[in-house]
Fold:
Amino acid sequence: MTFLFIIEMIGAVAAAISGIRLASVKRFDWFGAYIVGLVTALGGGTLRDVLLDITVFWTTSWDYFVATGVAMAIVLIFQRQLVRRLKALLVFDAIGLALFTVIGIEKSLMAGRPIWVAIAMGLITGAFGGVLRDILINEEPLIFRKDIYAMASFLGGVVYGIAFALGGDQVACGLSCAGVCLTVRMLALHYSWHLPIMHPDNE
Amino acid sequence: MTFLFIIEMIGAVAAAISGIRLASVKRFDWFGAYIVGLVTALGGGTLRDVLLDITVFWTTSWDYFVATGVAMAIVLIFQRQLVRRLKALLVFDAIGLALFTVIGIEKSLMAGRPIWVAIAMGLITGAFGGVLRDILINEEPLIFRKDIYAMASFLGGVVYGIAFALGGDQVACGLSCAGVCLTVRMLALHYSWHLPIMHPDNE
Amino acid sequence: MTFLFIIEMIGAVAAAISGIRLASVKRFDWFGAYIVGLVTALGGGTLRDVLLDITVFWTTSWDYFVATGVAMAIVLIFQRQLVRRLKALLVFDAIGLALFTVIGIEKSLMAGRPIWVAIAMGLITGAFGGVLRDILINEEPLIFRKDIYAMASFLGGVVYGIAFALGGDQVACGLSCAGVCLTVRMLALHYSWHLPIMHPDNE
Structure:
């Protein structure tokens, strides 16, 4: 429990940092940057809880508010060093993506939803914080145009579903899902894998 | 039932195609385009269900996921022909608008809401998928600037309300609503009807 | 009750006017401008109610629809005069911000949520209508980049929390919250106070 919680907070801080840094590029003020960071960290889970019609997770604990505060401090104090640590940030972000996907799937199954809804909710939990971030800073969502990000979450979800169908217990399902999600994301980053791009009609 | 379901799926495919084609213009990748298509098809109904606090419709059936897959295949395979079939697409889209408006109104009445809330929900069901699509691809919502689209849904809703107040049964109310919505939308397309544009202060 | 209701409607009209005027700059049509105005007026409260999982407030009364209609008439008829009355508009908007913050906090406490959730909901009620407005018109949210706006709501919320912890009754808590929020906002407008801006990495 404690170990998972530490991982979750690392993922939340990494997500918040990505939001705060992009808000900085747009020259948002401190308060605005904090809110963009917060929405990046908890937006996916919030959308999941609203769609599942269960209590929104951050209304029972302010962990994510603290995590975003930590992210804010890191960006303000270590801004220059961060640029050289981008790779570490992306690794933490990938760990967060993997864990958030598992959390989203398990919350949905606990709420009594079928596995395919759970896979969709895993994707929403993992990837839609970044979508909401990009909407707030008025950019086209990055995850729809670059890298394999949402797809890594989706593939992890499919693996969870297969393990689930084969009778795997929660730990086995969760570990295989997170493992696939993290591996696909890291390989995609390392080898610059991309999905095929859509082409407009007039070409 | 089956007939209505076929119409609903045609409307969903038409909506998804509009999302996928606009995502193509922005050079989203395949996965991103699929998600934009999906949000266009089911976004309005999702917002309605969240606002009504009822079970989000797509969490009990994956029809819309399949419909978006069909839309994706149509765009990828028939892209060039689609450009010459724009008129057919717009007709299907108008049929979807009319049917989604009726579905939104009836779902709201079934949830025990007053008729004016139902009309608002009909509009949201019919037109807000396109709004969410335009937010995702980072464009100003088309329906607020061009053609008579949301207004057609609204007028259909008002006609539903009148038929409802006059004691019409569900079929009569639904048919008159869909008929008005579809007629207004098709006439607006054919004669290039527009609503008056707002003018900024400095003119 | 009646006095508070009049204040709330003035706040709603002021919020709707800000949405309609920004939609005019983007040359939305009348219907689109009305919807942007409506979303500005009721968007924050809607998000609050969805996050608290309580009945969305505007589905039980159409006050805000009427208030937006009044705002629409004011913009269309008095457009030129409005430019010279910008200061009055900003005062009404600040009054709305203060009252919406109090309403958001009290609704959350009535729903049994802890005070820190209530403060967050006060901020969302007061400031997120403007965020949703800026998302709809495809601009970077103004409140994250300019002036002290969301911060005024937040400070008012903190004062509510302090008064609440000290055992103040509802009237005392509400008045001190609204007073601080309004004072901070008006001082920020008058002296052009800003929060520090974030700087991107490469500086």
Q: What stands out?
A: The interface with chain B takes residues 50-53, 113, 116-117, 131, 134-135, 138-141, 143-146, 150-151, 154, 194-202 of chain A (CB under 8 Å). The two ends of chain A are 53 Å apart (CA to CA). Helices of chain A lie at 2-25, 30-52, 63-84, 86-110, 115-136, 150-165, 170-190.
